[in-house]
Write a structure and sequence with these properties.
Blueprint: E1 2-3, H1 15-28, E2 33-35, E3 41-42, E4 52-54, H2 74-86, E5 90-95, E6 99-100, E7 105-115, E8 118-122, E9 127-134, E10 154-160, E11 165-171, E12 195-197, H3 202-219, E13 223-226, H4 234-248, E14 253-256, H5 263-270, E15 278-280, H6 282-294, H7 308-311, E16 316-319, H8 337-348, E17 354-358, H9 359-363, E18 364-365, E19 371-372, H10 375-388, E20 393-399, E21 402-407, E22 418-423, E23 428-433, E24 442-445, E25 454-455, E26 461-466, E27 471-478
Parallel strand pairs: 1-2, 1-17, 2-5, 5-13, 13-14, 14-15, 15-16, 16-17
Antiparallel strand pairs: 3-4, 6-12, 7-8, 7-9, 7-11, 10-11, 10-12, 18-19, 20-21, 21-22, 22-27, 23-26, 24-25, 24-27
Helix pairs in contact: 1-2, 3-4, 8-10
């Protein structure tokens, strides 16, 4: 799939139209699903979408100083999803459920201040603040839902409008507490930002599930990407996913962002029953990041150590970078340019996982620290995946500076089969046993990094070259 946005896209309201015009191209590369940016009204026309305001406003109402979202109008969005579906592409919406921002009114509420580094530690007696916790959505005037939000629907906030003081305030009231079923970083990581939604409140749960079904029906969704789940009550996430799957009555893909470099923790979150949820392979991302940073000092044999794709291959989305890891973002850990294509080969040309291509890597990153896209190079890997990366996989992870694998091909894809090599230290190569069934066939490097062709010997073996700091992917071209 492709994550079809990066943080610094122009706020010109034209992104849905760009996506519509790109549908044929994406399908031709073998892209099967598109992860949309957050499509609901946020704090303003420049908001990427994570400062969520009104879940029911898809760019239809004059709210927060704009009718369209950063990406366009509701009409443009629905046209884009119709075009994508017509081209056979799946559509995954980015769903932001952890918090709400840019409230319409303040309320006088009782809170206690807690330690940001240990949210279980209360550092004040109860007192009153003026909090932005009242959401009435006057621009929408009750269309689609008459539900309004007040302080009772939240667990915490971080700003007192009366004094102008920013701190972490836990709301006090009946049955009010941070959820215990969240990540335990900082003692309790229920609170992330803005007004934190209380998924222990039955009105909140009911309304959010109703909205999710509405969004599925409105956009004819094939799946969702759930933002920031480590900050949301896991019981609610499990229930929400189950409700969405039951509502659609067919396969419904759900991938959640749980940003922790901890395979064991992520595997526990999935649970033994794997509750129809997929996670992003954050540990693999950090292995790729570290490999790019360390260069020849990284042992490539360990690239899949402690990763989800190794332990949970059917419940994982693999990725190289995303909008959070790109330069100057909160989770910046951008994979080095020299290792970018080897990293993509590791997710695109192997058997396991559902790989995700980042818009910023493909089309480029805008902003003050702009980066060029790598479309030409990525196209070669994408087409190698589409045309050749099938069948049994045999790994040769024997050298700390050079790894290789063979895809044997299958009968459903005539001519398929692939030999991939990655090196982080100097020119070299490896003799690989492709198989006697390929004896006499000629192979060439689809990346163009190696110009000479390789002929398979009578015993099914051949020497495949690779340059340091690159990837080569050989496929059969004759014989």
């Amino acid at each position: 799939m492709m994550q079809y946005f990066e943080w610094y896209l122009p706020a010109d309201g034209g992104h849905w139209n760009r996506l519509s015009g790109d549908a044929d191209h994406l399908a031709s590369l073998g892209i099967m699903g598109v992860w949309l940016p957050p499509c609901c009204k946020a704090t303003g026309a420049n908001d990427v979408g994570y400062g969520i305001y009104d879940l029911y406003d898809l760019g239809e109402f004059d709210q927060k100083g704009t009718v369209p979202t950063k990406y366009g109008t509701r009409e443009d969005l629905i046209h884009a999803t119709d075009i994508l579906h017509a081209k056979g592409l799946k559509i995954y919406a980015d769903v932001v459920l952890n918090h709400k921002a840019a409230a319409d009114e303040t309320e006088e509420i009782t809170v206690v201040e807690v330690d940001r580094n240990n949210r279980d530690h209360q550092i004040s007696d109860p007192f009153t603040i003026s909090a932005w916790t009242r959401f009435t959505f006057p621009g929408r005037a009750g269309k689609y839902s008459e539900f309004t939000w007040g302080w009772q629907h939240f667990t915490g906030t971080d700003y007192d409008a009366r004094t102008g003081r920013a701190a972490l305030y836990r709301i006090v009231g009946e049955n009010k507490a941070f959820s215990e079923n969240v990540d335990q970083e900082n003692g309790n990581y229920d609170y992330l930002m803005f007004a934190d939604i209380d998924y222990q409140h039955p009105e909140v749960t009911d309304e959010t599930i109703r909205w999710g079904k509405w969004l599925i029906d409105t956009l004819k969704l094939d799946g969702m990407r759930l933002d920031a789940v480590k900050h949301i009550n896991q019981d609610f996430i499990e229930g929400f996913v189950g409700e969405m799957r039951a509502h659609i009555g067919r396969s419904f893909f759900t991938v959640a962002e749980y940003w922790r470099d901890d395979r064991a923790l992520l595997a526990r979150y999935l649970g033994e029953e794997n509750f129809c949820l997929t996670l992003f392979d954050v540990p693999l991302h950090f292995n790729l990041f570290e490999s790019g940073r360390a260069g020849r000092d990284y042992d490539l044999r360990k690239i899949f150590d402690d990763t989800l794709v190794k332990s949970n291959p059917l419940n994982v989305v693999t990725f190289v970078d995303n909008h959070d890891s790109q330069p100057h973002q909160a989770l910046e850990s951008y994979v080095a340019d020299w290792f970018k294509m080897p990293a993509y080969a590791l997710i695109l040309l192997r058997r396991d996982g559902y790989p995700c291509v980042f818009y910023g890597d493909y089309y480029g990153i805008a902003g003050d620290d702009s980066r060029p896209g790598r479309a030409e190079e990525l196209d070669k890997l994408l087409l190698a995946r589409k045309n050749y990366a099938y069948g049994e996989q045999i790994d040769f992870f024997d050298d700390p500076h050079r790894i290789a694998w063979i895809r044997k091909g299958d009968a459903d894809h005539p001519g398929s089969g692939l030999v991939v090599l990655i090196s982080n230290d100097g020119v070299g190569g490896q003799v690989l046993p492709v198989g006697q069934e390929f004896a006499g066939t000629v192979w060439e490097d689809l990346t163009g990094n190696q110009k000479q062709r390789v002929t398979i010997a009578d015993d099914g073996r051949a020497y495949f070259p690779v340059d340091g700091g690159t990837v080569s992917a050989f496929a059969k071209v004759s014989g």
